[in-house]
């Protein structure tokens, strides 16, 4: 018996040693986490296929990414994510080996090495005023043997050496308010064309060698112009007049300006619509979009306009591609139901098509937004074409020979909002997927694992084991699991597409391009705003659903759209185009009998609308009518107002789902000294396990756990800009914790000499915020914990034994409980992009802060480090409780990066979701990249680790049983011998 | 594991001496100086004396048994002191054995004093002492349990299991969307 206990203890020790470290081992990477790299919606694309070797396409995107993609598979060769303010305006190739990018409104010019993406040089271009920025790399234009790059940006023209990025000369065009729109090269002269105002057309001739102004000319055009000037070929330009009914052709031969005006109606008879010149650059041609047709118009040498072709249902027209000397081709695409037609034509030969293909594209990708073409030589020496298409949902496709060679879901680079959904329950008798393995394979896997544990596995076995672990079928099943690790992450992207990602492996389970968020005539620039859980049924037969809220334009005054989506299938159940606007969406803590959550939508006209629009919902709301409050933060005016529902709307048409509200309270911050820069509140679905905080001497502090609290950070008006723009004397940060029912300020604190940006997270009874301390020149993190003093007199044990206490009775903000707060500040090394806190199913597990650092990684920091009770010399009892001795700065332990060696480029947000297993929290970080992992802040105390060897356990048990049996037999035999002696 | 244990166990007895039997076979003369007279006393006095001696012996034994937990108590106290005041496997084990021993002893008070039961022997005193000492042991165990912090004597022990109070009001909001 004693032996058995000993063995058990040893086994226990052995098991517990598995969990001693919270960081990962190298072979654990990818077991529970996944990482996906994206680039965003492509703006410019350049093919690089001339040389033998790896064919690639260079792209710059709306997420400010420059990348080189493999043309064969669409993988990323290299990628650079520039900062959010570093918008890429131009992309080109110089000297055949450098990728040149112009960014930050034409002020930063960089050269990247084409094969590996290393930066070769970087130039900051000076300028005085904001202007359009143009990157122009002329062919064979040399100044002192240097190939020139011409850049117009910040109101001046720069000639930059392409070898080292040195600015050779600069022309400011001082005194002129010329909006340069084109740079044209002719021999060793450069012509710069542009407008002053909207009708004065200027041309400057410059010497390419030294930037000397040779001549200038201007002409006042007969009419104002509309839109951009398009260069047709070298010295010819076209632009529309103000009324968009005439085409103006401008010729600047040798710096002399001549123009020609022609009404569009001369070209086509039936064209009263609004015309737009498409920005496709095709020699001698331009494309005019009018009434859903595209007209291709040729500009002859004499400046005459000739209609070449009229294309119906055209979606996009590419730039021209030079395929051989004097031969140019361009492509356009037409939509037809579920198919698209890709046509490549020779500019000089209209009779035939170089290529005509029909491709079937998933209609969830929407229309084609942009197309880029490239040619290759087939084995029979004819030309083949491949086309890179940017779709409406921001995805990228490569089409070749009528097939989609590869596609990238780059819409996922611009996630707007995230929610989660449970997966369906596994039904008996229904084989869910192919993933079920047979017994033999299971056994084989475990034997391999055992080999690995006993360290007798060969290198090939190790590889097989790792592969087995990585594509464990268990984690990617489409059903709910016992531990709650498998869920659907439902993300809304900027393109208005909703994706459901599986948490097991990150694959897209379904995706839907919402019709309500597509451009229509009523809804010009629809924007997806937020995504909510609409219905979470507990009954397994029903599917949960998701609510997507959007609006028809970038401003508040545009009407709202709602869309309801089935979370399992991705089908749109219903969509509503609302007559009112949406300023706030408030999910109420009440559900109806079908478990649809009640939502209040507040518009900008002091009205509140209830959804779902059912009488039952009205009844539920009427019951809780006096307990529903809401508040609005007017950051510009520095006012926070509290409101309550008042009555039904008084209108001509009665609407019982519309309510008016009254103002209850307002907090007006002094505008000369404070400006709201950040607000944060508790997550509405956060679960708190206990209201008591036990001190070392068994004393109890009662946490002030109210969901109706708001953290507000105000900065001094002078210090609300970038760090370094204000002196410590004129910078301060005032933080408030406000009760949002009564408007009572629970806590106020001023940090002198500090400024934003403030990132904060509110959980349970504490708030942690991050800001910059100008005096110390370091970032700081502070913690404030709030305790309820009014409950502190519940100290008698007998009261609890007999149950005579009021700690579980409902609590109202109107009791005005007395609160005390404790706070402390620490230095922190990093600047921060986002802060989140882990959330677990029951709230028992200790918390970790997840800090998205400036290096686009996610750092997990124990909340224990941000405990206001930390002292320099904690007593023995305090140490036992887990209080860490006070240090002035928070430690950054490199093992506690949950993103380990990966980067979530362009990190914007972190979302945590509780798993069913109490110890574990699921973390999803999004930016340009997506990253998902599971973390256990107090280690996985409630389950065996994934790599626990069941086979070894089984083997141990079998061995023990065998040993018992053998020893028993031996002892019997010996006894018998003794007896015979 | 002495030899022949198995044989003994099987029941056969090879030889035996009965020392109490003094009446049989007096072939051998008494050793010099041995007076058989003292043995051949009056039967009644003999049995009374014998009984007195036995009851004396019994009560003495009963007191001894009653005092036995004292040693145990001291040993327990020493072990508890050795175990320290932090909660771990040994301190918990010792504490629980310190609690279990008195309880099991108390349960079997009757059984323990069964052999010493006699009309003439006063067992109440020893029993009371035994019970008192065991209660002392129990108290020591409970004291240790408390010292380890395993007794719910503090408010914190009761509050931690209470769910947080519900809130009457609901409030939400923020900066306008869009």
Description of the structure:
The complex is a heterodimer of chains A (981) and B (178). Chain A is mainly β and 981 residues long. A 6-stranded antiparallel sheet of chain A has the order 44-45-46-49-48-47, with helices on one face. In chain A, strand 2 (42-48) and strand 3 (56-61) form a beta hairpin. In chain A, helix 2 (439-453) packs across helix 3. The longest helix of chain A has 31 residues, at 950-980. The two termini of chain A are 30 Å apart. Mean pLDDT of chain A is 86; it is low at 1-21 and 429-435. Chain B has 6 helices and 1 strand; from the N terminus they run ααααααβ. Chain B has helices at residues 5-9, 43-83, 89-107, 109-113, 124-147, 155-159, and one strand at residues 170-175. Chain B starts with a helix and ends with a strand. Chain B has a domain at 68-152. In chain B, 56% of the residues lie in helices and 3% in strands. Chain B is rod-shaped, with a radius of gyration of 32 Å. Chain B is mainly α and 178 residues long. Strand 47 of chain A pairs parallel with strand 1 (170-175) of chain B.
Fraction of residues in H or I helices of chain B: 55-70%
* Rg of chain A: 34 Å
Shape of chain B: rod-shaped
Beta content of chain A comes to over 45%
Topology pattern of chain B, helix = H, strand = E = HHHHHHE
CATH topology of the domain at 82-220 in chain A: Lipocalin
| Quaternary | heterodimer
Number-wise, the strands of chain A total 65
Low-confidence regions of chain A: 1-21, 429-435
Number of strands of chain B: 1
Number of helices of chain B: 6
Distance between the termini of chain A: 30 Å
Task: Give the helix/strand layout.
The complex is a heterodimer of chains A (981) and B (178).
Chain A: H1 2-16, E1 34-36, E2 42-48, E3 56-61, E4 65-70, E5 76-81, E6 88-94, E7 98-103, E8 108-113, E9 119-124, E10 134-136, E11 142-143, E12 146-153, E13 156-161, E14 167-171, E15 179-186, E16 189-196, E17 200-207, E18 213-220, E19 225-233, E20 236-241, E21 246-251, E22 258-263, E23 276-277, E24 285-290, E25 293-299, E26 305-312, E27 314-317, E28 321-324, E29 327-336, E30 339-346, E31 349-360, E32 368-377, E33 383-391, E34 396-400, E35 403-408, E36 415-422, H2 439-453, H3 459-470, E37 487-493, E38 497-502, E39 508-513, E40 527-535, E41 545-551, E42 559-566, E43 572-581, E44 584-591, E45 597-602, E46 607-611, H4 615-623, E47 628-634, E48 639-648, E49 658-668, E50 675-681, E51 692-694, E52 700-702, E53 709-715, E54 732-739, E55 745-752, E56 754-763, E57 766-773, E58 778-788, H5 797-801, E59 819-828, E60 832-837, E61 848-853, E62 858-862, H6 876-881, E63 909-914, E64 921-926, E65 930-935, H7 950-980
Antiparallel strand pairs in A: 1-65, 2-3, 3-4, 4-5, 6-7, 7-8, 8-9, 10-12, 11-12, 12-13, 13-14, 15-16, 16-17, 17-18, 19-20, 20-21, 21-22, 23-24, 24-25, 25-26, 27-29, 28-29, 29-30, 30-31, 32-33, 33-34, 34-35, 36-37, 37-38, 38-39, 40-41, 41-42, 42-43, 44-45, 45-46, 46-49, 47-48, 48-49, 50-53, 51-52, ...
Chain B: H1 5-9, H2 43-83, H3 89-107, H4 109-113, H5 124-147, H6 155-159, E1 170-175
Helix pairs in contact in B: 2-3, 2-5, 3-5
